[in-house]
Amino acid sequence: MKKIWKPAAILLLPFSLAASLLALPQVPLDTPDEAPNFYFTRLVYTQNPNGGRRGNRGTMAPPANQFQCPEFGGGNFFPLQGWGWATDYPGGDCKFMGAIHRLTGIRVHANPHVLQILDKDLFKFPFAYVVEPGQMYLSLEDAKRLREYLLRGGFLHFDDFWGLNQFETFAEQIAKVFPDRKLERLPMSHQVFHTFFDVDEVIQVPNQRNGCNGGPTWEQPDDTEPRVLGISDDNGRLMVVVTYNSDLGDAWEYMDLACYPAKYSGYAYRMGLNIMVYAMTH
Hints:
By secondary structure, the protein is of the alpha/beta class. The chain has one domain: Rossmann fold (3-Layer(aba) Sandwich). It has helices at about 15-25, 90-105, 140-150, 165-175, 210-215, 250-255, 260-280, and strands at about 40-45, 45, 115, 125-130, 135, 155-160, 185, 225-230, 240-245. A seven-stranded mixed beta sheet has the order 3-1-4-6-9-8-7. A two-stranded antiparallel ribbon has the order 2-5. A hairpin with a 5-residue loop joins strand 8 and strand 9 (about 240-245). Helix 3 (about 140-150) packs across helix 4 (about 165-175). The two termini are about 15 Å apart.
């Protein structure tokens, strides 16, 4: 698998992550002679007509890989987001990569990067993000491709799905990929909580609406506890991480919205960066 990200000397700012991002100066991005070190790859899946909140309604989003982030600008610059695989797209992708670049100096691919599961180039990019997998359906061919991708060193982060119905749908689909491996809750001592920041608790990150209006942080009343789950290979390397009953993507996208609490966006950026660094160094 082609190595896209190279470890670099990374500088941390010792004050509030969410608040500090707004004050940071812009750092030059790609130059003609330097390729990006990291791609935040968003994975496209087929929606499951029997699962998820919206069923098989298709996706409304800008054409994949044709949107350019406006200097990592604010939410007003972004078109209406889609749903399913395109939830928080493209705004969440732009904001998250902008923050990573400005905080760490890692040369990121500045614009959204979207791939189909069966795309021939998938193996060039060892990190992929999947949102709302409670709506995901995997064919046997999809599952075979993802199994090979993960066993060859790839990494998947599943985020933003809620309640028992969506969890059961996701569990059925991921079992197609690894019928022989368990999805297990990760202890707080796991390296993924300590690769970059020390995260000492799992915080439930609400969607933008609930975060801004002070509503409940959960979305489905039949299961309200946030959990971070994972699947590892035979050597103990985490291949899959799952942020269940939590919405890191909304916190990335709305981190500069005045009404959205910094507690949630700060945690989401810390956890997102931890996951990214773990994926690229293990």
